[in-house]
Write a structure and sequence with these properties.
It is built from one helix and no strands. The longest helix is centred in the middle third of the chain and has 62 residues. It is elongated.
Length: about 70
């Protein structure tokens, strides 16, 4: 009673196909995949930027110690 049967899922699928059409669902999934890829790329770019910034600050601190 509490769970959805196969008939409920078939009705939901039929309504989704009627609303979006057959062509829109693959486009939508492709857009989601592109969004995930760009998110992962942005996260790796942030890690690279923070790693270079910490290396640069270490270099600056090292040079400051040599001049004293």
């Amino acid at each position: 009673m509490g769970s959805l049967s196969i008939w409920h899922w078939l009705i939901v699928l039929a309504i989704a196909l009627l609303l979006f059409g057959r062509g829109k669902i693959p486009e939508l999934m492709g857009d989601v995949a592109k969004g995930i890829k760009s998110f992962k790329k942005g996260m790796s770019d942030d890690e690279d930027t923070s790693a270079s910034a910490s290396t640069a600050s270490r270099t600056v601190e090292h040079k400051a110690d040599e001049t004293k």
